[in-house]
Amino acid sequence: MAMKELYARLKALYPLGELTDQRRDLAFVTLPAAHLRDTILHLRDKEGFTHLVLLTAVDWLEEGQFQLTYLLNNRQRACDLGLRVMISRDAATMEGIHDIWPTAATYQRELREMFGIDFPGSPRIEEEFILEGWNDIPPYRRDFDTLKYAQEAYAERPGRVTHDPETHMRLQMYPGQHPAGK
Amino acid sequence: MFDMFPPDRSQYPAAKPDGTLDIDLTSGKYLKLWQGPNHPGITGNMSVELTVCGDEVVEGKTHVGYLHRGFEKLMERRTFIQVFPIVCRVCVPEPDFNEYCYAACVEELAGIEVPEMAKWIRTLILEMGRINSYMMYLGGQAGALGQGVIGQWTTYVRDLMLDRFEELTGARIYHMFILPGGVRDTLPDGFAGRMEETLREVEKTLKDVYDVMFCNAVFKKRTVGMGVIDPSWLEPYGVTGPNARAAGVAKDVRKDAPYLVYDRLDFEPVTGTNSDIYTRADVRRRDVWVSVDLIRQILAKMPKTGPVMAPIPNVLHWKIPRGETYVRGECSRGEYGYYLVTDGSGTPRRINVRGPSYTHAMALLERMIVGCNISDVAALMVSLHTYPPEIER
Questions:
Q1: Which of B38, B123, B183, B313 has its CA 20 to 30 A from that of B371?
Q2: CB-based contact, B324 to chain A, within 8 Å
Q3: How many domains does one find in chain B?
Q4: What CATH number has the domain spanning A2-133?
Q5: pLDDT value at position A165?
Q6: Residues of A in contact with B74 (CB under 8 A)
Q7: How many CA atoms within 13 Å lie on the side-chain side of A39?
Q8: SS3 at position A129
Q9: How far is CA B175 from the centre of its chain?
Q10: Where does the pLDDT of residue B177 fall: very low under 50, low under 70, confident under 90, or very high at 90 and above?
């Protein structure tokens, strides 16, 4: 399927952003959160994108936004379309799609726990998914410092040495050179 | 075919308006029962919280997290090459798909063209890994129904295949052989001959497994008509791989969207019709034959010489421009994929692993387990062929 033709058809119906043609069979497009459900339903029912490949989030901390990626697959035409929805990090709430694909409820539970993105009405959204008794900020957010958390939560094992990879490899490859030398 | 064992709904609790079941544990009619995380009838480190009425399951909830190490988060703190030792650990029995999908994502975003020879060797490795994974599955499926000996036979041939992996990659479990740009090395001298010997052992064992497992009256009695995946569930529940093919839908990424050199190999996806535990096991058994044939084709058709690695930038200073992509492959359990987002820095912005177990072991299993007998839960769970690390990453 020519992605551009599909994009033109969609663009006539919904206010889509620019199309990013990643490959012949993969493209990404940004759209407003309010039009996500309609677009997904149209793609599933009219365009043959019946398979929800994944639903995940990307934290653009510097821009204060979360990118939600809904990747849909059309098996008959062997192509994928990624729908990008940008939502504010401060009010991270999104409408669920668990009624369209029941399996999306699992993705939404994970996103709530790992990124703190809420999907009101999603089944068992309040239940812990992977973490147990977690009381820190959601750990997959970019501002969660894994190193700091590990240093505070776990004891240091004595006798263990950690090398800076760049310095260590330079010394391995050029033994005579000073570590700081470029 | 789908009403072979219609469940008796008369004992079931009523549903609340929100769709959840109204289970009153104090009534004495229902019992909470945990299967796992330490239980012989569980696939890997996960558990299923069962609510039973008599010996019939009325509700099941999958619990994961026992293996969570935050792989995806750890990857965000590492350079593109340092991610490599992590990706393969997402799936122990079949780690090569992680290596391939991740490497292909990086190559695509960095604009690296993989040499022809490397594509053939990658395909070879993926098919070897598929046989290994199926061998673990066949042993597990038989073991869940009390046939311990099958696991010993399949572990034997899996061990032979691990020997081939060891001579090819230097490692038995985590190979780390498929790197961005290609593969580490060519095939060792005499590899094709030794692989042929291994494939003959695989075939011999498969025949024994067929005779002892698939023709066994008890195995048939407990699996035919049990654990049916209705074909109408495939899309809503994201079912892929042998679980979908056993329901008659020839979903196979190798055919649907050929990658590497699959478009130059002659094979047909294995399908079934009954979509029960027996059919899923049979589809996987026959899929091993396909993989054996594919390995022979690869070794016969692949170029004998040529570069195996494309030039790549200095990995210590490797920055990839802003972009995102998704690369998938057909692993032994279904669609496996990596979603990689880069932001122009020296580390990935986000990596998301799409493992088939994510949908199979959560939403699908919770749906299928209702109405199941407690003694069949293990067989049902194994028949979906799930690996928990793919869920929690």
A1: B38
A2: yes
A3: 1
A4: 3.30.460.80
A5: 84
A6: 146
A7: 27
A8: coil
A9: 17
A10: very high
Which residue in B388, B361, B376, B385 sits closest to B139, CA to CA? B385
pLDDT higher than threshold 60 for residue B330 = yes
Look up residue A160 and give its amino acid.
R
Length of chain A: 182
Domain range for B307 is 71-355
B342 part of a folded domain: yes
Contact B77 A71 (CB under 8 A): no
Is 80 exceeded by the pLDDT of residue B265?
Answer: yes
Q: Determine how β-strand A79-88 pairs with β-strand A26-30.
A: parallel
Alpha-carbon distance of A103 to B354, in angstroms, equals 13
Q: How close does chain B come to A9, measured CA to CA in Å?
A: 23
What CATH number did the domain enclosing B243 receive? 1.10.645.10
Cβ neighbours of A67 (radius 10 Å): 20
Alpha helices for chain B (secondary structure H): 71-76, 84-87, 96-110, 116-143, 148-169, 191-209, 217-223, 242-245, 253-256, 277-301, 357-359, 365-368, 374-383, 389-392
The neighbouring-strand residues paired with B334 are B331
In a domain, residue B48? The reply is no
Q: Is the pLDDT of residue B386 over 60?
A: yes
Residue type, A75: R
Residue B334, domain member (yes or no): yes
Considering the domain boundaries, does residue B51 fall inside one? no
Residue type, A18: E
pLDDT exceeds 80 at position B207: yes
| Residues of chain A positioned with their CB less than 8 A from the CB of B335 | 53
